[in-house]
Amino acid sequence: xxxxxxxxxxxxxxxxxxxxxxxxxxxxxxxxxxxxxxxxxxxxxxxxxxxxxxxxxxxxxxxxxxxxxxxxxxxxxxxxxxxxxxxxxxxxxxxxxxxxxxxxxxxxxxxxxxxxxxxxxxxxxxxxxxxxxxxxxxxxxxxxxxxxxxxxxxxxxxxxxxxxxxxxxxxxxxxxxxxxxxxxxxxxxxxxxxxxxxxxxxxxxxxxxxxxxxxxxxxxxxxxxxxxxxxxxxxxxxxxxxxxxxxxxxxxxxxxxxxxxxxxxxxxxxxxxxxxxxxxxxxxxxxxxxxxxxxxxxxxxxxxxxxxxxxxxxxxxxxxxxxxxxxxxxxxxxxxxxxxxxxxxxxxxxxxxxxxxxxxxxxxxxxxxxxxxx
Length: 374
Known about the structure:
alpha+beta; Creatine Amidinohydrolase, Chain A, domain 1; Creatine Amidinohydrolase; 2 domains; six-stranded mixed beta sheet; five-stranded mixed beta sheet
């Protein structure tokens, strides 16, 4: 079975087909995990293996077709997809190419995501082979896919509310995971356990850092350095429920909060609050970026101050100067300002929000303006 009722996928298909008709596309060819799952409900950790390609064809009218390795036939058969074509993979040659060419026969204009944040999950050699042997032609459908996925359905929003609540509950138990003297790697391990105990299905993303009054970076693996009095500990989690992510962080002062940490946290809280108040349907991402960047001041040099959220940890759009996407009700976004305290230390805060027809909804439990001391 899928995580959603069949009607959810029927609505997704109807919206896609209407958009394809408007764009003059006869079909979509999709082969990345998020897009395949969006149209079929097929959810599996087997995507971690790069060995096998997976394909879904969405026609301008009619049913979705799945062209997949035989190992996935049983699970795909439990989805709402009726047309499932398989081959035994891996076999070294013809990894679904012949089946895919056959399935694409009769389509002239075929959309493939080719733009910003798109990727191709098959060998380039095979892609070129397919392109050369079909009668139709591939065209970029990135904007069409973005338009479909950026606005979440009520069913999707319900899951996103749940996973944000799970993450918030886990952060409320930070004292279970972090104390003075604890190695950072051990803090990460304990916090992952806390997230799972609170109801997360997976914790595929957990990053952070620690240092006196701030931290140097937020993407390095944790080491055995113990937490010290005066450190700021930051943990940023992308935990999942039914394949949907939360993505937010929290900062904690260990033992005591140094003045620079107190000040930075206040400034970031205020910037986030300004962003939250401004994040209304009809406002563009670039306008929201300008509002938040103004609060950060001239010393801020960040590419973006938030992004979309859903089946992927980061999705379209970006709260950035270059992104003029207009916010719509149903979008789930992060607000993620960062601040350089000095040349070597920084601080980042992040919240998850839902854009509505009125005031936005905070999906995460709003952090207090004063940094929490543990």
